[in-house]
Amino acid sequence: MKSTFITLTLLTMMLFKANAQELNTTAADYERQIVSVYKQKDMQTLDHLLKSYYKSGQYPLDVLMYNYNELQGMEDWGVIIMSSAESLIGKLILQRVLMVHRDKVLVCTETGGLDQATCERLDIPMPPTTWKPEQVYEQTIKWVAEHTDRKVYFPFTDSPLFKEFPDAMKECIYNEGLTMHYSVTPYDNISVKIHNLEERYLTDYLKLALQPYNENQDKRQYRRFTPGMLALNYSAIYMDMMPYYREHRADRVEWLLNLYRACQNHYSNLSVNSFFNIEQ
Question: Which of 129, 147, 169, 193 sits in a 20 to 30 Å window from 138, CA-based?
Fold first, then answer.
């Protein structure tokens, strides 16, 4: 069954509450402080900042839901390795404020990566200090995968489409939707993507124009996840799977197209049809 973490009604109530609050600290201020405190591992102060940031309403709910779906598509006790604090902050809010997906281990190479506390939680040795800066991200993924039985993931936005991973490493990377799974053992990732799309991801919120802001008004310190990027990422998944659905699951094609159209209507002015050659 799909999780009922946040219903559409609750989302609307949260948005109304957030808009009604007076904001004394900017989103960029919150995010700079959160990253600094996270690096120091002052978890008490971190929790206070995360709760205040969430209650301020300045962290976009659609971005929060995107982060939720990333974690939702992972297996229990999985590890997600991120290159940017943008991916980290939303997941920290989910885990430490909303208390969901707390079994997932977050590793962010921008904010310390495999520090002692993280390695102890994973029960793995500390990595060598000889990695070149440009190799830290890929080496972190491989190090965790080699030393733990947990499944290792990283965000779609950190995929080989955007990073120059070695060819041998790319052969071990499987697209599962919003996340990429690193596995030296081949497997059927099509079935996993279908399971994520139909059973795991929360997608009803895509049909609402939740956020009363545009990209110029978004004052976060870390802004890679903007409405346009969200739309493009979701659209890429839907269009990636469209040939399979048309051939094997014709009864679900209209459902998939409706999700795609929801992204187009509410989240982006981009003409992603030109990228994916999709029929309207």
Answer: 193
CB of 206 closer than 8 Å to CB of 262: yes
Please tell me what DSSP assigns to residue 222.
-
The pLDDT value given to residue 16: 46
Please state, in angstroms and rounded to a whole number, the distance separating the CA atoms of residues 21 and 129: 46
Give me the residues of the chain with pLDDT under 70, please.
1-23, 160-162, 209-217, 227-228, 266-280
Compute CA distances 207 → 150, 202, 261, whole Å. 34, 11, 9
Predicted local confidence at residue 274, as pLDDT: 37
162 HSE (CA, 13 A, CB side): 10
The pair of three-digit structure tokens given for residue 76, joined into one six-digit string: 């229990």
Are 138 and 173 a contacting pair, CB within 8 Å?
Answer: no
Bridge partner residues of 173 (DSSP): 182
- Check residue 269 and give its pLDDT: 53
Coil, strand or helix at 41: coil
Q: How far apart are CA 36 and CA 41, in angstroms?
A: 9
Q: Would you say 129 and 52 are in contact if contact means Cβ atoms under 8 Å apart? A: no
Structure token pair of residue 65? 């839901």
Helix (H, G, I), strand (E, B) or coil at 45: helix
Q: What is the pLDDT of residue 19?
A: 47
pLDDT at position 209 is 59
Give the whole-angstrom CA distance, residue 259 versus residue 200. 15
Query: From CA 280, how far away is CA 277, in angstroms rounded?
Result: 9
